Structure formats: C-alpha cells, structure tokens
Amino acid sequence: MKTAVRHVKKEKPLNLKHYINWFEIPAYSFERAVGFYSHIYGIKMDSTEANGYSMAFFPAKGGIGGAVVVGEGCVPNTTGPLLYLNGGKDLNVVLSKVEEAGGRVIMAKTLINEAVGHFALFMDTEGNRLALHSKA
Description:
Elements: E1 22-26, H1 30-41, E2 46-50, E3 53-57, E4 65-70, E5 83-86, H2 92-95, E6 104-113, E7 117-123, E8 129-134
Parallel strand pairs: 1-4, 5-8
Antiparallel strand pairs: 2-3, 3-4, 6-7, 7-8
C-alpha cells in the first residue's frame, strides 16, 4: 500500500523559549495528592474548586506553573507522557521525601551525562509515574 506524501509549505519555526506552558497531575484523592507534593517540596499549595474540578497550584514565580487536579477525566497513569519535575540543586533532597510521603522510588538518582545532569523516577500516591531532574 502506498502512503500519500503531503507537500507542506515550509513555515518559519516558532522558536519558543519553552514548550511547556502548564501541567496538570491527575489525582484520585485531592487531599492525599496535595499532601504528597506539599511534603516532598516543602510548599503550601493554594487550591480552588470550579466546574466540578479541584485544583491545587504549585507556586510558580514567573516560571512554568502547574497543578494537582481531581475531576472528571483526570485519571492517574503509569504509561502516559513522562513529566520531569524540577529537583532543585540536588534532586536527592526531594527524592528522599517520596517514600515517607507515601510514594515509591522507581529509579534512584542516575547520571544522564555531565552536561545534562541527573534524573530519578518515582510513583506518587495516586499512581502517576513522574521524574525529577537536577543538574547536580
């Protein structure tokens, strides 16, 4: 079977600074998920409820923001896109709090290479597979 080749007019690249504007981490239990992320990051998450959704926001100071979300269609999973959360200067600080907050470390801090830094994988209390990244 032949595959049709589309001739697409070449357009200028968007040259975006970031390719992520916002992220949402789905949860089953709002209180449990907010407690987990508040604990591992040592933060207070402001929350709101609207249109059948509960959201707790990661504090973002001019950077990319996100939230924990509970509501219709917000289903935690281990097989979707992998979100890399900021691990700060040394991701072990955050990673060391994952299990005491009810999550599970899947892969310990691992060197990618000297230029890129390190990553680690974990499961949150809701069953989401996520990663942490840090330069050191």
